[in-house]
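During the no-cost extension, the postdoctoral fellow (Dr. R.K.) reprocessed legacy sequence entries with the updated structure-token encoder. One reprocessed record is reproduced below for audit purposes.
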Amino acid sequence: MASVRTGDIDTYYERNGEGPAIVFVHGAILDSAAWLEQADALSDEYTTVTYDVRGHGRTGGSDRNVYSVELLADDLHALVEALDLDRPVICGLSLGGCIAQVYATKYPESLSGLVLADTFTPPYFSRRERFQRSTSMRGIIPIVRLVGYERVEELMVWVNERVHGEGVSGEYGRVEALREEGPPMATAEFAKVIRALASFHETNVEHAAIAVPTLVLYGENEPPFIKQHAIALAETVPDVTVQAVPDAGHASNLDNPPFFTNSVRAFLKNQVLAA
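Re-encoded structure tokens follow.
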């Protein structure tokens, strides 16, 4: 267990292996343990770094009243510099993918490759998506204050599976197990993180300016709007590969770890190191 000062917080991280570095950025309301299988598998050839994003896990919260995806990307950059990582590959899922997009455009000289999994870009593509990503997200905060985010998320999983079909939430039991094993998230931090996600549409990300090889992964059972964003990334990022992860929902690295890990490994060898 280790931590390093990154701006105004102490960021918890784990570092393993040797070789070119890859930094994994987890999704909202989880922590770095979500990447355990990928980090363990890839540490045979690479330096793997996992960390708990501000507000999550052993990093915990801060005195700031408002978070943004840009702030979380700045935290990531501070971590990369503090650990003296040389142009790592950044791999982010969901919220982590939003952070990775901002990092790639704000710090273009500070990465050599990009993996965006189960994530979305700032623009909305429909009124329904606007509701899902903004109104609905903000609306759950008062309910979480009353009953806790675990119960609220269980209800959202139930609703999503009836709207989008079974499999959209993937192996949700694995997500629940990870939450039980890790430190609980403070409700105030939950609110700040969710508001940051709900405001991501206000962020300017120049995808056409991403100059590194990019891999986009999405679960084949994802909600339709996530697949739309994968298509948008395929159309705007210059050097991009898009793959569907079979038998996976919104946490594709947990739903189908072998496929996800093998896809990242092939990407690192054939596109990043060969560039």
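The longest helix spans residues 127-147. The longest strand covers residues 9-16. The remaining legacy entries will be reprocessed before the final report is submitted.
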